[in-house]
Amino acid sequence: MCGIFGCLVKDKDVAPLILAGLKRLEYRGYDSCGEATIHEGKLFVKKGVGEIDKVHAELGLDDLPGEIGIGHTRWATHGAPTRENAHPHTDCEGKIAVVHNGIIENFLELRKELEAKGHVFKSKTDTEVVPHLIEEFMKEGLGFQEAVIEAVRKLRGSFALAIIYAGFEGMACVKMESPLVLGVGRDGIYVASDIPAFLPYTNVVIQLKDGDVAFIRPDGFRIYNFIKGREVKRKPRTIDWSADMAEREGYPHFMLKEIHEQPRCLKNTLRLDRRYLTMMADLISSAEEAFMVACGTSYHACLASSYAMSRLAKKAVHPVIASEFVENYGSFVGPRTVLLAVSQSGETADTLEAVRHARERGATILGVTNVLGSKLTRMARVYVCQQSGPEIGVAATKTYTAQLSVLTQLAVIMAERRGKIGHVEAEDLWDWIHKLPDLAESVIEVTEKDIIRLAEEHVGVEKFAFVGSGINLATALEGRLKLLEIAYAPSIATSSLDGVTAGCLGKGSTAIFVCPSSSPDRKRLLDEACMARDHGLNVIALAEEGDEEVKEASDEQLVLPVPPELPEVLSPLPFILPLQMFAYYVSVKRGLNPDKPRNLAKSVTVK
Ligand code: M6R
User: Fold this and answer.
1) Could you say which of 3.20.20.70, 3.10.310.30, 3.60.20.10, 1.25.60.10 is the CATH number of the domain covering 77-247?
2) Which of 78, 345, 355, 426 could form a disulfide with 126 if both were Cys (CB 3.0 to 4.6 A apart)?
3) Per-residue model confidence as pLDDT tens digits over 286-296
C-alpha cells in the first residue's frame, strides 16, 4: 500500500499542494517519497529515502515548477527502500513519470522484453516497466493517451497509476484493483489513493472503477475504460466526511477499516512471487530441524501453519514463542537448522534475538514480514513480504490473515514438492486458497450485523473462554488475544474446556466455540459446549451454514457463509474474522478506543 497524489490546478504551482497531499497520505507508506511536475514542456523530478519531512528538508519538495504534477509516498513491495526505487519512475528519456500503488505481477517478463528492446532500467521495482512500456508504444507511433491505454492493457495485477508526460498538458490516471479517486474542484482536478488527501480543496468525488483510465486536462477530463474498450461516465458525489473521518475512509476506527481491508490484502498475498515461497519450501524440507519463531499474533499464525505443514507436507516445523527460543532450543541450533521468523513489523526484539542467535550458529534464516527493509529482511536469507500495507490499529487483524494465507501457501508448496499430496488434492487446495478473499468478504458482510448485536449483549460479561481444537486452537488464542487487548476482558483460550474450568468461569460467563464441520474433534467440542451450558455459561458457536448439530449444543450461533467442504487447514482464516469483529465491537460498546489500547505497543522493539 502506497499513497498517490496528483493534481492539475489553473495558474498555480502545484508542488506545495502535492507535498501537503502526500503528508495526509503518509499513513499509507513512509519509507521514501517523491514528486514530479511538468513545466514548459519539461519534466522535473525529486525523490529521496525516508519520511516526507526528512526528504522535504533535504530536497525542498515544494519548489518544483508547474501546474501539473504527481507525488508518491512509498511502502515498499518490490525493491528495498532506496532512492532508485522511490517513485516517480521515469522512462529512458526522462519525459514520462509514473507513480504506482499495487503489484504488477508480470513485471519480470515485461522488463525482459523491454530490456531486449534496449530500455535501461534504474530500479528494482515492478513500477518502472510502466514508463518504459508507454515510451515503447510512443516510439511505435502512438500518441501519449493511446500509448497509456496499450501499456496498461499489458499489465497483470493491481495498479493505481498517475502518469505525466512532458509533451502532454495533463495527466493520465489508471485504476485496477488498487484504490484511486478523483476530486473535482473549482480551480483544479485532484487524484489520490484516498479522499482525505484532497479534502481541503474539494468534497466532490468521483470513485474510479476497475479498468478506468482518466485523462485530465486543463479544460476537464474524460474517462475511458480499457476493459470495456469504450468511454464511460462516472457520477460525481459530494461527501460530508470530516477530514478526520476521511482518513479512515469513513470508518470510525482504523481497526474496523483494517478488518474490512482483509479481502484486498488476501488478494495481494495471491500475487507473491512463487519462486521465493518455493525456495523457502525446499530449504525447510531439507532441514534437519525446522522452527518458526514469532510473538503475539504472528505466533498464532505460526501455530496454525505448523499444523498445516505437518498435515499436508508431513514435516514438523516447530512453532516457538520467540522469547523462549534461545533458552530452550538455542544450544542445538546449527547449520542444518532452518529458522522461519514471522513478524509483521520485522523489528520485534525477541524475534530478532532468536534470529541473531540462530544465524550466528550457522542456521538458515527465512522471514515473512510486512515491512520491506525491516531488520528481518536484512537478516533473512530468503524472505517474503506479505503486502498488507501499513497497519495502524495496534491490534493486528489484516496482517494476521495475510500471514495465514502466505504460510498456508508455503505449506501447500512444501507438500507438493515433497510429493505428499496428489495433484488433484493440490489443485483443490489452490482453488480454495484463491477463493479465500471472496469468502472473507462475505463472512465480514454477512456476520457483522449479528456481531454488533452480540457485542451489545456482552458489554457487561466479565469472563470469556475461547475454545478451538487442532488447527483452530490458534483461532481461539487469537480471538482471545484480540478481546484481551482492546476490550480488557479476562479470558482464556483452550483446545478443550473441562468441567473444572467451566465451573470456575461460572454462571454468566461466555464460552465461544470454534466449530468448523471439518474438525476431527467436533463431537468432543459439541459435548463440551453442552457441558458448559449445564454450568450456566452462555455458549456461542461459530459454525458453517446448514450446521444443525451446532444449534442443539449452543445458545447462539454465528453462522458463517462458508461451505462445509472448506478444507480444515484453511478454516482458521474465515473463522477468525467474526472474532476480530466481536472484540472490536465489545471494545467500542464499552466506550473504549480500540485503536489505542492502554499498556500496549504494536510491536515490542526493545528487550
Ligand atoms: O510485528 P510483530 O508481528 O513481530 O509483532 C508481534 C506482536 O507484538 C504483535 O502481534 C502484537 O501481539 C499485536 N499487538 C497483536 O494484536
Assistant:
1) 3.60.20.10
2) 78
3) 999 999 999 99
Q: Is 302 a catalytic residue?
A: no
Kindly give the parts of the chain with pLDDT less than 50.
none
Residues 6 or more apart from 20 whose CB is under 8 A from it? 200
Task: Output the CATH code of domain 251-421.
Answer: 3.40.50.10490
SS3 content of the chain, % helix, strand, coil (to 5): 40, 25, 35
Q: What is the predicted pLDDT for the residue at 77?
A: 74
Annotated active-site residue 504? The verdict is no
Nearest CA to ligand 1 atom 4: 343
Q: What is the pTM (predicted TM-score) of this model?
A: 0.78
Domain pair 77-247 / 251-421, same fold: no
Say what the pLDDT of residue 606 is: 66
Measured from the Cα of 348, ligand 1's closest atom is 4
Domain boundaries, the chain: 77-247, 251-421, 445-592
What DSSP assignment string belongs to 488-506? Answer: ---EEEES---HHHHHHH-
297 C-beta closer than 6 A to ligand 1: yes
pLDDT digits (tens, 9 = 90+) for 13-49: 999 999 999 998 887 777 889 999 999 999 999 999 9
Pocket test for ligand 1, best of 258, 300, 340, 348 (most atoms within 8 A of CB): 348
Fold of 445-592: Rossmann fold (3.40.50)
**What are φ and ψ of residue 583, in 5° steps?**
-60, -45
Predicted local confidence at residue 605, as pLDDT: 67
